[in-house]
């Protein structure tokens, strides 16, 4: 990379420009394909070459003749351009295997945001590092596996779509299939983390139970009890604090053993497409007139901060618990409905999303002896999902 930088900068007379840089790297990669890590090292290498040229120019002529002064000025200007260049966009277009991943049969990779695509590319580079295959070949394998999944029909169309996405083989359940095809020899810690992620139900709950049992047995071993009853009482007393301690220990071990991972995301910075229409819902209780007006106002604030078509905002409302069977109508419900209608009228010409209100009636809860919104907040979300489905 340093040799490349030492060749490029003199060729452009130490006057950096995005266009010439991209053309140069593309021409270079016709002969030698740079690895992803090498591409990300180019920026500091170019800065180093420019700085060295400044130093050499000044040392050649301590008085800095006019021609040398121009050269120094060009270098300083290039350093500023190098610092401000959109490197994420420039280098992404130059990563050869990125173009392979963009042939993702699910069509999702190209729609993802930049950090997510970078995570995918880092995974490709990691597998290439620990196998005998290049980054381009690893990317081609992931795409080939995704295409093969389309020939194996699934009952669940959503699962079939998942399996046709390259990310299924780079980050998710299909990664072991890609490991085998690439004959990847991952380091021990990577394999251990993969094992834990593949068996979360065995690792976490069983870990809590094993630690709890171990701590109880340790106490029983160190303290002798007079009878079986006293032993059982001691176990019952120790069970709750020791199980809580075991949970804390397992939480620590989980975060210590497993590296955090970025959740893959699609890029909706230019707006939400129609096929991904989304409803932002806010579960709430209607308590009094002031609270209702504030709740609707807060909904409007969320809307104004995210005005885009296909992104809608709704309130999921309940009334407070009632000891007596409630009436079906209520002034607070009418008020909230009127305020939501007013918002729709106010923003009707903005070409953005809409407002809605979904109110549900209370049902009798025998255990608590009151009329209540089923399962409260969680119940509102579940009922809304059922309505959508």
How many DSSP-defined strands? 5
Structural class by helix and strand composition: mainly alpha
Spatial shape: extended
Q: What integer is the average pLDDT?
A: 90
Give the strand line-up of the largest sheet: 1-2-3
The helix count comes to: 18
Question: How much helix, percentage-wise, in residues?
Answer: 55-70%
Radius of gyration: 31 Å
Question: What would your notes on this structure say?
Answer:
This protein has 389 residues and is mainly alpha-helical. The chain has 18 helices and 5 strands. It has helices at residues 2-11, 18-29, 36-40, 42-60, 66-84, 87-94, 96-101, 114-129, 135-149, 157-163, 167-170, 175-182, 188-198, 200-222, 228-257, 289-304, 331-346, 376-388, and strands spanning 278-285, 311-318, 355-359, 363-365, 370-372. It has a 3-stranded parallel β-sheet, sandwiched between helices. A hairpin with a 4-residue loop joins β4 (363-365) and β5 (370-372). α14 (200-222) crosses α15 (228-257).
């Amino acid at each position: 990379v340093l040799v490349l930088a030492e060749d490029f900068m003199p060729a452009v007379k130490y006057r950096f420009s995005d266009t010439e840089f991209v053309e140069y790297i593309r021409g270079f990669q016709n002969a030698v394909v740079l690895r992803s890590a090498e591409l990300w090292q180019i920026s500091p290498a170019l800065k180093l070459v420019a700085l060295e040229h400044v130093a050499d120019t000044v040392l050649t002529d301590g008085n800095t003749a006019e021609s040398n002064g121009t050269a120094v000025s060009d270098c300083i200007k290039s350093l500023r351009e190098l610092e401000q260049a959109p490197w994420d966009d420039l280098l992404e277009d130059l990563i050869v295997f990125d173009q392979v991943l963009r042939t993702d049969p699910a069509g999702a990779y190209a729609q993802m945001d930049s950090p997510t695509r970078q995570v995918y590319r880092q995974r490709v580079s990691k597998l290439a590092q620990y196998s005998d295959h290049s980054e381009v070949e690893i990317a081609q394998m992931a795409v080939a596996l995704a295409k093969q999944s389309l020939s194996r029909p699934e009952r669940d169309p959503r699962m079939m779509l998942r399996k046709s996405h390259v990310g299924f083989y780079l980050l998710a359940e299909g990664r072991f299939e890609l490991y085998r095809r690439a004959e990847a020899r991952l380091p021990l810690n990577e394999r251990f983390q993969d094992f834990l992620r593949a068996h979360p139900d065995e690792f976490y709950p069983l870990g809590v139970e094993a630690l709890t049992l171990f701590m109880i047995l340790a106490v029983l071993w160190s303290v002798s009890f007079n009878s079986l009853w006293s032993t059982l009482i001691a176990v019952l007393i120790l069970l709750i604090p020791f199980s809580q301690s075991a949970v804390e220990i397992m939480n620590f071990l989980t975060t210590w053993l497993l590296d955090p991972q970025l959740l893959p995301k699609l890029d909706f910075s230019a707006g939400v497409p129609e096929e991904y229409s989304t409803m932002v819902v806010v579960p709430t209780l209607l308590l009094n007139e002031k609270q209702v007006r504030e709740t609707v106002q807060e909904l409007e604030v969320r809307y104004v901060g995210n005005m885009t078509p296909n992104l809608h905002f709704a309130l999921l409302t309940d009334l407070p618990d009632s000891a007596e069977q409630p009436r079906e109508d209520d002034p607070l419900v009418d008020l909230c409905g009127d305020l939501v209608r007013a918002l729709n009228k106010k923003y009707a010409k903005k070409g953005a999303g809409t407002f809605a209100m979904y109110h549900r009636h209370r049902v009798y809860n025998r255990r608590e002896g009151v009329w209540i919104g089923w399962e409260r907040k969680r119940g509102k979300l579940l009922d809304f999902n059922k309505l959508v489905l």
